Each structure stands twice: as structure tokens, then as C-alpha cells.
């Protein structure tokens, strides 16, 4: 259903009269949604909780102020959790800043080169497969955190360790208590939005984490809590040694993965947010540069990478935001909270944040799209599934590359459609008196590429060898070199039989460009 036309007084993204009142309310809602997610993503990424808040602050105060998309909100995202965790485990926490900084500079360069709009050309199946794979790995890892246990390093290791996890939880009262806290958090996240009146006032993530924290405090449960350092202590700008490590090809691959995946997630989020309101549309190149500027600053502070996040962005629109002031103010509230109440983070149980991320990982998998894809676009479903499985089995970067390759191959196969029409040409009157057989006209239609060459040659070679053949290529839109050479070879072979009785002759009509 299309959005109703907006008036100057109500158009989101514009500067209507009285907009500050709406933006102020929306900023508080977004802050309440963002706070547990910022902390949860940081903990799941293997970095201090404060670094997630730092990224959220930069996403609000800097990226929120820059042009691009007026209503989408940026911050640390669950979609990059797996990649960040792998990078921290491989290169160390000190290297995170330089990785994020380099990725931000790459995003700035891509935006300056007007490459933002090209991200819309990425196959939706690849993006959905990427998010599904991230969601599955996130769930598999955070299931261990639900019980305050250490997760194996690889995706397959996490899956293989699930039976042992059940035994460990059953044998440990502490793990069982943490699991109850985490499962209760997930249940509240799923049920709270059904109470629509309350959900409009208090967002589900805040309610779930607050309830879990209260339950742990009241019953004195022996569960792990978030470790707090302090905002300034957590900030670790990269040094010269970290910059020198960029000479490593593997680190450059991680930078490329950060930049491409963060950019794709941000710009697809922008497209989704544009469908939620009727205000100004996103300028993709400016939005890409805004994300790059934010990541460059986050990298300089040694914080997490950022993307535009659909959960916070949707909350911003639904709360009635009118201008970019709402997302800037949400950054102000994060900064005030981190400066004035840092100890409040230390009472949050880790299992509750794990529950938030398990719920977020579940929502990353496009469950509702699987049925329609199976019925109507099974090729797209295959790309989605292979991409997701490759991410679970291997890693995020390799999985996305495999998905992109499959998408290109599928498109090339579909575009290279070719078929043959065979008709009999009228026989001249003198030929009819002599009992001559009519010549066959073979018309080739479509796009003749090497992918369909076996089928094309099989069809041509099945034609009768004792009839005159007229080959018409005028219906081809494209002929690649392999097909052109094969058709020429087939023509020469048949023309070589012209001296035999009865004669066989092939004539070629004008066709497409080679």
C-alpha cells in the first residue's frame, strides 16, 4: 500500500513546524532500543561493552548529522558481529581500530566515486543469504553465552558442540540459572510487541534486559554480568604498529569485507527505510560517505564498525521522527548515559544480552520468504541457502563471494537462452515436378553463448543430412566467439557435402553482432 502524500508540516526528513517535539520523543525511543543492542553487539564481538556505546554515539552525533538518509539510524550491528569477532581473535583488539578506520576511508572513496548506487545491483538472494548465515552463526555462538559458557571458535565447532552444551548445562546449576535468564529474555522479546499499547511506550529490548537484570538482582542468581571499564579507558586509538600490519594481505581482505558488507547492509537498510515514510529519498552516494566518515572516526577511537540498522531506523520512523535531529539526539542520550551512569552497565547479566542477540539473529533469517521462493524462484532460493551454508561452514567473506559468483552464473545462464525453429521452405514449381524435397529453414533465436553451445550443436546435428539447409541467424541478439566459431565449423562441414547426391547446402542470413 503506497504511503499517503505528506504535507510540509508532516513530511519526514523535512523541517516542519513543531518538528522538534516529534524528534525529541523519537530520539528517546531510539536511545532505549539502541542501548541494549550497542552493549550486546560489543559483548558478542569480544570487545569491551563501552566500545559498542562509542560506536552508537558516533553514529548519532556524526553520521546522524551528515546528509544521505534523513531518518535511518547508525550504530553497531549484529550483522558484523561474526566478522568483528573473527578479526579480534585473529589480529587482537588493538588492530580493530585500524581495520575499521581503513574500511571507513574505503567507504569514503567509494562514495566519492559515485559507487553507492551500484550496491542496489547486488542480488537480493545474496544479501538475504548473507544475513541468514550471519544470523545462524550468531545464534549458534550466543546459545553458549545464554548459559555463561565459552563458545567454540568456528561455525562448525559451534554446531558440533551443541550436544555437549546440553550436558554441561544439566550438570551446572550456575549455567542452568543463566540459561533461564536468557530464555526468559527471548520470551519477553517475542511476547512484548503483542501488547501494542505498552510496546509503543517501552521498546521490547529495553523491557527484556531490564526485567532480566531485576530478576537476577531480586533472586541473587549466580550469573555473569557485563564487565565495565569506563568510556575513556575503553577507547584505544590504533598506533604505528597496527598501521604497519595493514601490509598483511589477510588484513586487507578483512578491511575489504568490513567496507563492502557494512556498505551493503547500510544501503539496503536505507532502501527499506525509504519504504516506511513519504519524505525525501536517500542519496546513496552521500549516505555511503556518511557511513565512511562514521567508520573512520570509530576506527580512530578503536571502536566497533557501524552500519545503518533497520531495527533502530524503523523505531525512529514509527516513533514519529520528522528530521535528522532525532538520530543526533539519540547519540546525545547515549553519551550522557555512558558519562553519568557507567556503573549501570555492570549490573546487566550477559545471558540477557545473549538472549537479545539470539532473537536478533533469528530475525536475520528471512523465514517468510523461503516458501514463496521455493514455489516461484528456486534458483534464488538455492543461492540464498548456499550463501548461508558457506558462511556457517567457512567464513563471512568467502560465503558472500560464493553467493555473488552463483548469482552472476545464474543470470548468465538465464540470459543466454537460445532455441531453434525449423520450417520447410516452399518448393519451386520445377523442383516439384522432379520430386525434390523442400529445403529446411533453421532460425536460431535468443542469445547464443558458450553456456548453451552444447544444446545448440545437438539441435543442429540432429537435422537431416540429406536436405538442403538454410541457417538464419537474424533472430539472435548476441553471438559470442565460441558460438560463432562453432556455427562456422558446422556450416563448413555441411557445405563440404555439397558434391554428394543429393546436394546439401547451408546458407547463412545476416545475424547479430559477434
Write the layout of secondary structure elements.
Elements lengths: L18 H26 L4 H15 L9 E3 L5 H11 L4 H17 L11 H23 L8 H6 L1 H10 L1 H19 L4 H6 L2 H16 L11 H4 L5 H5 L4 H26 L9 H17 L6 E3 H9 L6 H16 L9 H15 L2 H10 L1 H16 L2 H20 L2 E7 L4 H5 L6 E9 L4 H9 L7 E4 L3 E4 L1 H15 L10 E4 L5
Parallel strand pairs: 4-5, 4-6, 5-7
Antiparallel strand pairs: 1-2, 3-4
Keywords:
514 residues; alpha/beta; Transcription Regulator spoIIAA; 2 domains; five-stranded mixed beta sheet; two-stranded antiparallel ribbon; 23 helices; 7 strands; 61% helix; disordered N terminus
Distance between the termini: 45 Å
Low-confidence stretches: 1-14, 498-511
Q: What general form does the structure show?
A: elongated
* Major β-sheet profile: 5 strands, mixed
Oligomer: single chain
Number of strands: 7
Range of helix content: 55-70%
Strand content: 5-15%
Average of pLDDT: 81
Which structural class do the helices and strands define?
alpha/beta
Radius of gyration: 30 Å
Description:
The structure is a single chain. By secondary structure, this protein is of the alpha/beta class. It has 2 domains: 331 residues, no CATH class; 92 residues, STAS domain (Transcription Regulator spoIIAA, 2-Layer Sandwich). Helices cover 61% and strands 7% of the residues. The chain contains 23 helices and 7 strands. Strands 3, 4, 5, 6 and 7 form a 5-stranded mixed β-sheet that branches. Helix 1 crosses helix 17. The two termini are 45 Å apart. The N terminus is likely disordered. InterPro entries: SLC26A/SulP_dom, SLC26A/SulP_fam. Its main location: membrane.
Amino acid at each position: 500500500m503506497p504511503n499517503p502524500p505528506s504535507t510540509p508540516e508532516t513530511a519526514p526528513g523535512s523541517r516542519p513546524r513543531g518538528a522538534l517535539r516529534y524528534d525529541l520523543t523519537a530520539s528517546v525511543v531510539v536511545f532505549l532500543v539502541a542501548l541494549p543492542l550497542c552493549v550486546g553487539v560489543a559483548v558478542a564481538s569480544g570487545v569491551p561493552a563501552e566500545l559498542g556505546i562509542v560506536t552508537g554515539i558516533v553514529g548519532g552525533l556524526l553520521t546522524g548529522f551528515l546528509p544521505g538518509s534523513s531518518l535511518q539510524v547508525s550504530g553497531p550491528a549484529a550483522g558484523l558481529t561474526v566478522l568483528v569477532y573473527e578479526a579480534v581473535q585473529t589480529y587482537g583488539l588493538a588492530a580493530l581500530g585500524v581495520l575499521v578506520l581503513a574500511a571507513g576511508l574505503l567507504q569514503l572513496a567509494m562514495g566519492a566515486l559515485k559507487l553507492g548506487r551500484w550496491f542496489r545491483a547486488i542480488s537480493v538472494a545474496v544479501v538475504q543469504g548473507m544475513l541468514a548465515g550471519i544470523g545462524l552463526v550468531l545464534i549458534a555462538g550466543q546459545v553458549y553465552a545464554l548459559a555463561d559458557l565459552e563458545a567454540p571458535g568456528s561455525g562448525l565447532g559451534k554446531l558440533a558442540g551443541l550436544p555437549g552444551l546440553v550436558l554441561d548445562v544439566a550438570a551446572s546449576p550456575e549455567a542452568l540459572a543463566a540459561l533461564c535468564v536468557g530464555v526468559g529474555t527471548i520470551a519477553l522479546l517475542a511476547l512484548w510487541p503483542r501488547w501494542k499499547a505498552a510496546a509503543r511506550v517501552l521498546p521490547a529490548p529495553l523491557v527484556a534486559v531490564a526485567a532480566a537484570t531485576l530478576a537476577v538482582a531480586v533472586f541473587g542468581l549466580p550469573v555473569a554480568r557485563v564487565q565495565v571499564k569506563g568510556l575513556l579507558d575503553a577507547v584505544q586509538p590504533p598506533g604505528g604498529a597496527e598501521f604497519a600490519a595493514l601490509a598483511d594481505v589477510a588484513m586487507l581482505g578483512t578491511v575489504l569485507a568490513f567496507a563492502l558488507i557494512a556498505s551493503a547492509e547500510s544501503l539496503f537498510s536505507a532502501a527499506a527505510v525509504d519504504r516506511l515514510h513519504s519524505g525525501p529519498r536517500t542519496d546513496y552516494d552521500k549516505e555511503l560517505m556518511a557511513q565512511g566518515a562514521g567508520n573512520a572516526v570509530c576506527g580512530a577511537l578503536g571502536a566497533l564498525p557501524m552500519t545503518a540498522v533497520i531495527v533502530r531506523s524503523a523505531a525512529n520512523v514509527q516513533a514519529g521522527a520528522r528530521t535528522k535531529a532525532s538520530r543526533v539526539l539519540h547519540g546525545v542520550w547515549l553519551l550522557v548515559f555512558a558519562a553519568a551512569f557507567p556503573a549501570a552497565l555492570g549490573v546487566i547479566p550477559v545471558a540477557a544480552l545473549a538472549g537479545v542477540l539470539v532473537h536478533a539473529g533469528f530475525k536475520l533469517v528471512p523465514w517468510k520468504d523461503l516458501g514463496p521462493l521455493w514455489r516461484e524462484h528456486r534458483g534464488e532460493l538455492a543461492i540464498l541457502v548456499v550463501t548461508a551454508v558457506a558462511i556457517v561452514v567457512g567464513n563471512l567473506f568467502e560465503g558472500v563471494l560464493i553467493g555473488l559468483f552463483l548469482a552472476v552464473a545464474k543470470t548468465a545462464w538465464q540470459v543466454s537462452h537460445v532455441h531453434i525453429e525449423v520450417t520447410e521452405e516452399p518448393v519451386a514449381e520445377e523442383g516439384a515436378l522432379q520430386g525434390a524435397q523442400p529445403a529446411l529453414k533453421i532460425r536460431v533465436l535468443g542469445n547464443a553463448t558458450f553456456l548453451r553451445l552444447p544444446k545448440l550443436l545437438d539441435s543442429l546435428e540432429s537435422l537431416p543430412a540429406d536436405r538442403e539447409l538454410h541457417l538464419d541467424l537474424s533472430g539472435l541478439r548476441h553471438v559470442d566467439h565460441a558460438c560463432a566459431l562453432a556455427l562456422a565449423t558446422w556450416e563448413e562441414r555441411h557445405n563440404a557435402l555439397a558434391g554428394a547426391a543429393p546436394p546439401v547446402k547451408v546458407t547463412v542470413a545476416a545475424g547479430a553482432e559477434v
